[in-house]
Design a protein that fits this description.
By secondary structure, this protein is an all-alpha fold. Helix content is 42%, strand content 0%. The longest helix is centred in the middle third of the chain and has 16 residues, at 19-34. It has a domain at 17-50. The chain contains 3 helices and no strands. The protein is flat, with a radius of gyration of 22 Å.
Length: 76
């Protein structure tokens, strides 16, 4: 099994690029291969240093519609 550095070299990634570009590239590869989102070390550090800036989004509403059940609408 190859190390990430060797994979990046094989794919022609510039070894002199910024750390954030390297992190973004690796994050993209993980997302494409495993289908999961990961936090990079710089993202984790930013969250630890500024926890008050974290934005919490409300959960999306979900609806469980069953094709076999029908509920008549009530008229007002």
């Amino acid at each position: 099994m190859k190390k990430v550095g060797q994979l990046m070299k094989d794919m022609g990634f510039n070894p002199n690029s910024s750390d954030s570009a390297k992190e973004a590239f690796i994050k993209y590869l993980i997302k494409q291969s495993a289908g999961v989102n990961v936090q990079t070390p710089s993202e984790k550090k930013a969250i630890q240093e500024n926890p008050e800036k974290i934005v919490h989004f409300p959960k999306q509403l979900t609806f469980d519609f069953d094709e076999n059940e029908t509920t008549p609408l009530k008229k007002a």
